[in-house]
Amino acid sequence: MTLSKRDNAEYVIFVLCIMLALAVTPFAVMRILDSDWVMAALDTSIILSMGVLVGYVYKTGHHQLASILVASVFVGATIVTTHLQGISQLPWAYPAFTVTFYLLSPMRALAATIAALLAIVPIITSEGAFIEHIKIIFSLAINIIAAFSFAKLTQKHRKELNQLMKIDPLTLTGNRRAMDMDVSRLLEEHNKYGTALTAFMIDIDHFKTVNDTYGHLFGDGVIAQTAKVIATHMRDNERLYRYGGEEFLVVARNINEEDASILAERLRKHVEVAPFERDIHLTISLGVAHLGAQEDVDDWLKRADKALYQAKDQGRNCVVLAPATEATASAAAAPQ
């Protein structure tokens, strides 16, 4: 894996592992000089484990398991050193708990840090005055709550951003990014389980005339309204994407040729009778193609697009079903 292809999660692991190893190294050296062999062994094992994890992630790029292990080292080392050295080691708990929320999901990190806090409470309460116990426990609890709140908020914003990155802002349908991701996943499902997939390539008829007559702003409104009409009359197993310009793609799962024709005609008719601004009369043309056996996505969509242009050549406002691929036709003709 080249450096340019690494994602942020890998860099976070690299930085945290290196920082922890550098922070622990001076203490490991001092403890070896002081013949404190138990703590020296613990510090050395932390340094070595960080090095191993950096090497593992660098070589494989698999950061999920490494994240769990790094978080375990941070939290585990905090518990062990506190039990061995007392509350003088508690300052390490604050960064350890915070780092855990960088590495794990918010709920997992919350469970891990609460368990760690409960594990070190007996040490906290065994030394010093009662008021000091309360201060330490409450400050650690506040650290956990603040880190959890920030992690949950970040998670929410990340999900919202990822969702926005897959939505076409004009039509609020899936964009090309969403289409590529969904179609790739559906193709894997098709290859694994034989799920039937059908593509409906849709184009607004005479859209250039609409733009030339009423302007591009009005044309954008027409595109958005057309998408809304199509989306309103789709079922749960169908997904709509803006393919580009005034062209759309509907991908449907598990429908046969007859149902595909019915769906295409239904969409065509609903757009034809839909009321548009300025009382313009709008129609769409559709090309329909079923995914053939062993067919890749590009060839599948090209067949749907070719069928769409045949619909255009036949006068528009109609549906053309692409012929089956040779592999599909052979499979259908084979004796049962």
Q: What do you see in this structure?
A:
With 336 residues, the chain is an alpha+beta fold. The protein is built from 12 helices and 5 strands. It has helices at 8-33, 37-60, 64-85, 93-103, 106-124, 130-164, 176-193, 207-214, 216-232, 257-273, 297-313, 326-333; strands at 197-204, 238-244, 247-253, 284-290, 319-321. Strands 2-3-1-4-5 form a 5-stranded mixed β-sheet, sandwiched between helices. Helix 11 links the parallel strand 4 (284-290) and strand 5. Helix 1 runs antiparallel to helix 2 and helix 8 crosses helix 9. The chain starts with 7 loop residues before the first helix and ends with a helix.
Output the keywords.
336 residues; alpha+beta; five-stranded mixed β-sheet; 5 strands; elongated; disordered C terminus
State the order of secondary-structure elements, H for helix, E for strand: HHHHHHHEHHEEHEHEH
Strand content of the residues, in percent? 5-15%
Distance between the termini: 47 Å
Give the class from helix and strand content and strand pairing. Answer: alpha+beta
Instruction: Give the number of DSSP strands.
Output: 5
User: How can the largest sheet be summarized?
Assistant: 5 strands, mixed
Number of distinct helices: 12
Average pLDDT for all residues: 89
Task: Tell me the radius of gyration.
Answer: 30 Å
In which range does the helix fraction lie?
A: 55-70%
Spatial strand arrangement across the major sheet: 2-3-1-4-5
Task: State the shape.
Answer: elongated
The low-confidence runs, each spanning 5 or more residues with pLDDT under 50, are 327-336
